[in-house]
Amino acid sequence: MKTLGDVAVGDSSTIIKLHGTGALRRHLMDLGLIKGTQFKVVKVAPLGDPIQITVRGYELSIRKEEAAIVEVQ
Amino acid sequence: MAASQLHVALAGNPNCGKTTLFNLITGQNGYVGNWPGVTVEKKEATLTRDKSVRITDLPGIYSLSPYSPEERVSRDYLMSGEPDVVIQVIDATNLERNLYLALQVVETGLPVVAALNMADLVEKSGDKIDTAALSKSLGCPVVMISALRNTGVDELIAEAKRAAATKGNVPRHTFDSAIEDVLSKIETLLPSSVSAEKRLYYAVKLFERDEDAARLINLTKDNAAKVEQLIAQCEADCDDDAESIITGERYAVIAHMIDGCLKRAPERMSTSEKIDRIVTNRILGLPIFILVMWAVYAIATGANAFGTAGTDWVNDNLFGEGFELFGQTFPSIPGAIEGWLVAAGASDLVQSLVLDGIVAGVGAVLGFIPQMFVLFVLLSFLEDCGYMARVAFVMDRVFRRFGLSGKSFIPMLVSTGCGVPGVLATKTIENEKDRRMTVMTTTFIPCGAKLPIIALLMGAMVGDAEAAWISPLFYFLGVIAVIASGIMLKKTKLFAGRPTPFVMELPSYHFPSIRSWWLHVWERVSAYIKKAFTIIFASTIVVWFLTNFGVYEGAFGFLPAMEGIPEEFTDYSVLAMVGGAIAFIFAPLGFDTWQATAMSITGLVAKENVVATASSLLHIADGTETDPNLWAAFAGMFPTMGAIAAFGAFNLLCAPCFAAMGTIRAQMNSGKWTAIAIGYECAFAWVVGLMINQFYLLATGVFSVWTVVAIAFAAAIVFQLVRPMPKWAWEDDKVSTSAAAGAVA
Predict the structure, then answer these.
(1) Distance CA B10, CA B37 (A)
(2) Contact, A62 vs A50, CB < 8 A?
(3) Which label site among A7, B384, B517, B629 has the fewest CB atoms less than 10 Å from its CB?
(4) Fold of B6-166
(5) Chain-chain contact of B97 with A48 (C-beta, under 8 angstroms)
């Protein structure tokens, strides 16, 4: 399964599915990360984590660990 | 509350300009408190122009889901029946995500007015928003405003008053017909006690398997089963779970709305993106951050900088020798007050109380204001312009390792000035556990008032109070205390739980409005000043009483006025008695003299007191932290160098001053948690002091029972630091695990 954390910096992709349950999953959905959403990985923080993505016209910071529940194309 | 009052709720995403709007229309004369039972900030105020309109500023949220305390209090308040109308603030530069919350608020059935904020920025970008079209598709009035430039706000208020009179609101948006079908079937199963305008909201919540809503609606067993069957059928049809279906439907509705109302200008790289390319750059990010922080402290507290100049002026002139202004000589404040008191014929007792007690105590605190002001001007700017969110982004990796998030960094930076606003700054941390942990540990960072203690210690230990390497050493001790505490506490049941997600929006950079910037600075400086004039004012009187009253030759009274009392009367004071009585606590730490204990007691009141107490107890007239005589006398109280270091560690790490403890109480919103925080800090400080003293003694060949105790503590700490996270610590919060299991019981 390829996840959001696997997308290389500068690449774009589309979300296939959000795995897991509970607060984190719902929070990501509320922020607009749902099936079919396109995003672009903009950069990685200087210490290698978290990553910054552009989604729905805004900038979002997310840890690789949390990005692992987001399955992408 | 008067029946004629109009209740307006302000709702919106974080960073949508809600607070700027709130400050603008209320003049920030509001009451800030917590929602009952939770530490989520509650702001209430009346409109400046019309006192019959009461505004409640809800916390910034992304959704009305049941997962975070912010979202819960927001929806509870919206559904409570109190608000007559909701002003839904929408960041017009980010319509898509902001409309997601707006849709949910419209679904509550309350009268809503949407305020499209940041109209000026939209105009600048060249985008065009058709408000009439948006109003039609959203089903509520839409007003373009700029809270920053104060445009459209009067119209917004007028519109809100008009909407409040309408009672009820019909959402215009419709989901996919299959979903609408299921929702209307659920609506028919709702008990008749649910009023017409709220039925859609509850139908959607039941469809999402929202536990809170299910508990509130309390369906009959039969109906609950029917609802569950409807949901399960729909999930099977859509091949997705209910929460995802609704979220997907909402974003689909929004996409349609935006097609109908937004004309986008051709895309170009925004200034914000350009700045970010450099500021959070993989290679330059950290050096830039260090440079920025260095600049902040150089300007605020550096030897020749603004802040220090102001503080020195206050200490040397206003509270020292007096000063000259426009060619006229003014006496210092203590000098002037002394003059008045003498002229008024005040007794020695009153003069002593006012001058040695109140003026000296409050003066010591006020001296820090210029430095603190400059520090907060700079830090608030960095926060308001969006840089601090990037700092959290850059530093998260470091902080997560010990159970905190990048957001804990800001309170710790502020705490280097003063712990009171530092503790207050924790309110930006959404997660309750993280916030509590940050409140508990942030005062380990040496604040401005601890610097003279550090200087005194170093003078006594190495004979140099101002060596450049000294204060970094103590900041380092503070940082180590924070890290070690973070790791240890995270493995206790109190803080068990998965690391809080760090999913954070990085807002666009903008130059903050001077008004909100100033309000931010003032909020912090005034928190400090208020404490100076209340808690510290009262406590200086207590300290004055403790040092000036006592028993001499069998009689209790004001010592300086007693017959035949030696110049050094503090030996007979109440403070000496109290210090002597509890000094045994510090015996294992190497300082069981009543003087050292008394200094620690006055330090608990305010750290500013410690050096002054030392000078008075050790009979060094006007001794300051840079006075070698005081160093020598101070060092003389301790048997070894290790004991001095233990004293220093205890006083720097133990519970902060009264003012900060009061702030911890307010921020924790719980007596139990305040006790835990302060108890932990004191115990931790005592153990660190014990280890320093005993290991120093051990190194010099002294072994005792306490050595064993110190070794046992050290072993326990090492164990707690290195052991893997206990299994139960990973159990997720109840709310998250049970939510998936289905809400209909």
Answers:
(1) 21
(2) yes
(3) B629
(4) Rossmann fold (3.40.50)
(5) no
pLDDT of residue B668: 85
Q: What is the DSSP letter of B508?
A: P
Contacts of B280 in chain A (CB under 8 A): 43, 45-46, 52
Q: pLDDT exceeding 70 applies to what percent of chain A?
A: 100
CATH of the domain at A58: 2.30.30.90
> In which residue ranges of chain B is pLDDT below 70?
1-3, 29-30, 32-34, 36-39, 167-171, 301-305, 320-327, 364, 465-468, 470-471, 497-500, 727-745
The C-alpha of B466 sits at a distance from chain A's nearest C-alpha, in angstroms, of 34
pLDDT at B29: 63
What pLDDT is attached to residue B738? 34
Question: Å from B66 to nearest chain A CA?
Answer: 9
Which residues of chain A are within 8 Å of residue B276 when distances are taken between CB atoms?
A: 59
Confirm if B108 and B194 have CB atoms less than 8 A apart. no
Span between the terminal Cα atoms of chain B, in Å: 38
Could you tell me the fold of the domain covering B177-263?
Answer: Helix Hairpins (1.10.287)
Q: Per-residue pLDDT tens for B265-281?
A: 777 777 777 888 888 88
The shortest C-alpha distance from B100 to chain A (Å) reads: 8
Please answer yes or no on whether B243 and A29 come within 8 Å at the CB atom. Answer: yes
Nearest Cα neighbor of B122 from B138, B158, B98 is B98
Question: What distance lies between CA B534 and its chain's CA centroid?
Answer: 20
User: What is the gyration radius of the CA atoms in chain B, in angstroms?
Assistant: 30
Domain assignments of chain B as residue spans, ordered by start? 6-166, 177-263
DSSP A41: E
